Amino acid sequence: MSGPQSPLKPRRLNSWREIARYLNVRPWTVRRLARTAGLPVRRSMPNDSAVFAYVEELDRWQKARATGAF
User: Fold this and answer.
1) pTM of this prediction?
2) Contact of 53 with 13, CB cutoff 8 Å
3) 3-class DSSP assignment, residue 17
4) Rounded distance, CA 14 to CA 52, Å?
5) 30 CB-contact burial (10 Å; exposed 0-12 / middle 13-18 / buried 19+)
6) CA–centroid distance for 28 within its chain
7) Which runs of E-coded beta strand occur in 1-70?
8) Is the pLDDT of residue 67 over 60?
9) Does residue 3 or residue 50 have the better pLDDT?
10) Residue 21: enclosing H or E segment and its boundaries?
11) Who contacts 39 (Cβ-Cβ below 8 Å, separation ≥6)?
């Protein structure tokens, strides 16, 4: 007998460095892509210097860029 399943939490990357490591690029490239190419990076409030991104959104963004649908 199994208990109730908990909903899966989206995987969250909590810094420019973590996001860069996931995308296999340098952190400055992630910052540039966030500014110029719509990379789905969010800023934590009230500290705008803290950023995070959800893996699922990054995957969708990469797929859209690969297919030219961005």
Assistant:
1) 0.79
2) yes
3) helix
4) 4
5) buried
6) 15
7) 12-13, 42-43, 51-54
8) yes
9) 50
10) helix 16-23
11) 30, 33, 53, 58, 61
